[in-house]
Amino acid sequence: MILAILIYLSSIPWVFCICPSGFSSGSNGFCYKGYNDQNTWFQAEATCAQNIDGGHLASVENVFTNAVIGSLFAAQLNYSDIWLGGTTDYLGGNWSWSDSTAFSYTNFEPGRQNNSIGLCLVQRYNDLRWYPIECIQSRKFICEYPEVQKTSSPEFLSTTKTQSTPQISVPTKTSLSTLLPPPNCPNNTWLYYNETNKCYFFDMPTKKLNWHKSLAACNDLYHNATLVSIHSKDENLKLVDLAKSFSNESSLQVWIGLRQVTEFDVYAWIDGTPYNFTNISPGDGDPAPCVHLDPNYYDQDTKGYGSWFSNSCGDVAKAYICELEFV
């Protein structure tokens, strides 16, 4: 009877979950990895998404996960406060997780929950309490990745037990200078401009996207791709020409990578480059968190097309422009 049971069990494949090398299991279906780089929330979220499919900044669904995240990498990150995946930007002032997990458990420091747009969530290292700050500030961070499922047949009837380690293919970042020598872009859907040493990608999807989803779409296109930053009138006009070459719609709005630091009403580029040029229209109203380019708007003051206007990040635009910069 025992032999029959063993034979039956040996025919059933087992499914088990493991984490790639360098990752730690949270015993909750996710693997975690800490990063010592000081990045803005958006850069940190992009790093998580670029490294492995399904990657996001860590979300917290219960007190157990909050404790796991706070303890796994405390020493490695030098006991620093860290970004979590919470933000008020996705839902217009309501808190949500970047991985779309329900925002049901909270651990805010008393009196610190703030529902203003443009805030992101930090976990404090010493008591694991949360507090919100502007997303454009820099912190270390922890990414979460779904555990890798592997199927195996048990070896009940084997007389010699051979140990084997499942092999997991983990994407690695390759230097763009090696993979894409300038002026070559990823493919012929990207356009290269020698003056800026960048590749640009214009997209006008059937379904309009908000600013965050446009940024995610750039990240999905290629490692290190992000919404475009603009540093001169010449570059701005090139992007106007690029947009017009794809669409003649008079109402076209194009997301760019400019973000407001809400508390101070100033702007910064999502890629961290200097904010040394602006084309925000003098006719723009009260500042809003995100910015789009209007390729068809002629501004009498600046004597040119391609003025910028601020919008709620949750609004949708018809198009966006991504960039890849060679260094």
TrEMBL record:
<feature type="signal peptide">
    <location>
        <begin position="1"/>
        <end position="17"/>
    </location>
</feature>
<dbReference type="InterPro" id="IPR001304">
    <property type="entry name" value="C-type_lectin-like"/>
</dbReference>
<protein>
    <submittedName>
        <fullName>C-type lectin domain-containing protein</fullName>
    </submittedName>
</protein>
<dbReference type="InterPro" id="IPR016187">
    <property type="entry name" value="CTDL_fold"/>
</dbReference>
<dbReference type="Pfam" id="PF00059">
    <property type="entry name" value="Lectin_C"/>
</dbReference>
<keyword id="KW-0732">Signal</keyword>
<feature type="domain" description="C-type lectin">
    <location>
        <begin position="195"/>
        <end position="313"/>
    </location>
</feature>
<feature type="domain" description="C-type lectin">
    <location>
        <begin position="27"/>
        <end position="144"/>
    </location>
</feature>
<dbReference type="InterPro" id="IPR050111">
    <property type="entry name" value="C-type_lectin/snaclec_domain"/>
</dbReference>
<dbReference type="InterPro" id="IPR016186">
    <property type="entry name" value="C-type_lectin-like/link_sf"/>
</dbReference>
